[in-house]
């Protein structure tokens, strides 16, 4: 129990004890002026009734405030959930865009890889042909410079 609630209960209890101890005085009739007429009534009972009415009005006001706070809290929770879902969808959209971008980049890299492999294969073949031509030329030179063995 909160300290405020406990304090309010203690004050209400003290008021009840005070009224009970002075019940005879509270119930004593007296002449009360309402401004336009005078009536015979118990001043203590009228004041007690006004205090109960005021306490009831405060309780109604507190219940109203609590209800409005609860409704605002629920509304904020719904809005927060909607915003959270919207953010999740946006995040998923960003992930799908990133995936599409990465796939496009990987496709480009694969195409470049194939082109480089083809070019490398051509260059190796050209180098091999060049080396074979050089070897053939060297063989021709060696054959022309050395006399045949049978002469």
From TrEMBL:
Keywords attached to this entry: Membrane, Transmembrane, Transmembrane helix
Superkingdom assignment: Bacteria
Transmembrane segments: 43-65
The name this protein goes by in its record: LapA family protein
Organism field: Craterilacuibacter sinensis
Taxon lineage: Bacteria, Pseudomonadati, Pseudomonadota, Betaproteobacteria, Neisseriales
